[in-house]
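Entry for the shared binder. Reason: the reviewer on the internal report wants the predicted structure included alongside the sequence.
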Amino acid sequence: MSSSINCCCHTPMPKLQLVSSSNVVVQPLEAIFYRVKQCARLRCYSSSTSNQSWIQRGGKLCVECSRSIVCNVVVQTMQLLLTHQSFVYPHLLNRPDKDDANKRTTRSSSTTKKNNNVSHRGVDLNSNPYLHGLGGPTLPSTLLTVTFYVGVLFIVEHVTRYIIGTYLIHLDPILEIEVNRHIIARHMAVDFFSLVVCATVAIANRRVCTEIITHFFDATINGKTSPLLMNKETYEERIFAYHPAAQRLTLLFFTYQVKNMYDTIYWNDGIEFVLHHILAGAAAWGGMYPGCCHFYALFYFGFSEISTAILCLLSNFDPKYGVAGLEDVFPRTKLFLGAMFVTSFVICRLILWPYATYYFARDTMLAIKSNVPRADGRRGYLWVIYCCCVGLSLIQVLFVVMIVQTGKEEIAKFMKL
């Protein structure tokens, strides 16, 4: 079905395209106009082949607008976001400064604001970023997916409890105690598993932050860097650009913090852990809503968590937060994990963390002080995440002192074996 129509957003207007799939019933044109809220997805797209193929894969309905009211409405259904493709929105993959050029025209007059409150990438310019983020997945879809993944973590944890109690209980009498099995299952099936997933997503999508990776190796190995890399003039891309992989990673990391908060309260870990999970969860949620810093999210929620994942395994041997006496049963395992943690901590937290934080702090302050449209509504979150990052960086120094002290004690114990 196709027809020529006039549109307030395009001149000249391409032909109307109604793309159907096995999941979509193509309705008459009039029905779509008068039942906007019931459409699977409504966008002001061009009828290019690339956009049509994306919509066909998603099983959605592509409608070229013919009235201004249609242009001003963006409707999405609530759905589970289980694959990378669920986070891919082709109209968001342009440079943010191109979109900002369109946004600046909305400030010229109140009439312009009313008629052009959707950019060429389908983003409502006057929408609340804390509800719509950078224009990616909807808030209901995000909450539904978080709920689903939290349920998955509960299932994985109980399956791990069953495996330990059925097949591994014979390894040592210490595993015959049910509480001990539950503690090990928590640290392995929830903490370690979640952080490994986050790190895997970051590593698989490292191309998103190729710029800082290349800059780091050029500086450390070659002793010189290209002036085009990590340039101050390109901070907008690093702070405000939408990246599907980063949106997915922040959702997964936030999910882990939700489950971890429940476990912290259930096991009475302490108020310091509660505060940590609140701050970490807030940082991850802010990456989605209002949405920013996707470029750096892959490091802070992915690469840097490699050392934390190993620490979660090592925490099984802690007398307070783990299984008392487990270090006597598996002393060499504890020493091996301790060595792996120290190594990963030095690489991820003492070398890479300060390097990434320097550029993150610089770009964040540039964004806060700028007058670019995308900074509006996001400055408060940028200040919060900036302060959190500085505070966490200072905590790294305390961790170094603790690691050195603990390392001396563990080496002394091992020498007595």
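Summary line for the report: Confidence is low (pLDDT under 50) at residues 1-75, 96-123.
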